[in-house]
Amino acid sequence: LILADGIFGPQTTQAVVQFQLLHGLPPTGVVDYRTWTMLAAEYVAVLQLQRKPLSCSMFPSGVESITLGDQGDTIYFIQIMLQTLSRHFDNLPRVEITGVYDEQTRDAVTHFQELERLESTGDVNKATWDQLVLVFSVKHSLEDLIFRPQVPAQA
Which of 22, 87, 91, 126 stands 20 to 30 A from 76 (CA)? Predict the structure, then answer.
């Protein structure tokens, strides 16, 4: 490990030589075009490994709210979030995952709205959607922190 000091000194030269040997490049210690390109590719690969997965927006554009009788992918996701949260919060009713915004789903949404001090309409508007996603995401983040298996330290 080299401390970043802005100087291309002997330690940096040695690190470049090691990098070049590892990647089948001539071990010159000089960052030429081939070495720079390989360094950049490695950097991008590391960033890809460390980044969070991309998320997607499931709330349909141009829709004010999701209501009784609606169906489709967004409803599946609402029901999955509600069902997941109901397993962790006893005061939230369970729902079946059907893809149809039925009375059971509406009742669970109404209960969620009351718990979160939102307007209790039973419909999923943007405010309800945002709060549902927030609570769902926080729950998963906390689970990751609490239940992530511990990897023993290398000696």
Answer: 91
Q: Write down the pTM of the prediction.
A: 0.60
Sign of the torsion angle spanned by Cα atoms 40, 41, 47, 50: negative
Residue-level pLDDT, tens digit, the chain, 155 residues: 788 889 999 999 999 999 999 999 999 999 999 999 999 989 888 888 887 766 777 888 888 999 999 999 999 999 999 999 998 888 899 999 999 999 999 999 999 999 999 999 999 999 999 999 999 988 766 555 444 455 555 55
Determine whether 20 is exposed, middle or buried from the number of CB atoms within 10 Å of its CB (0-12, 13-18, 19+).
buried
Burial 24-46 (b: 16+ CB within 10 A, else e): ebeeebebeeebeebeeeeeeee
Reading the block at residue 103, the tokens are 């009375």
Name the 3-class secondary structure at 65: strand
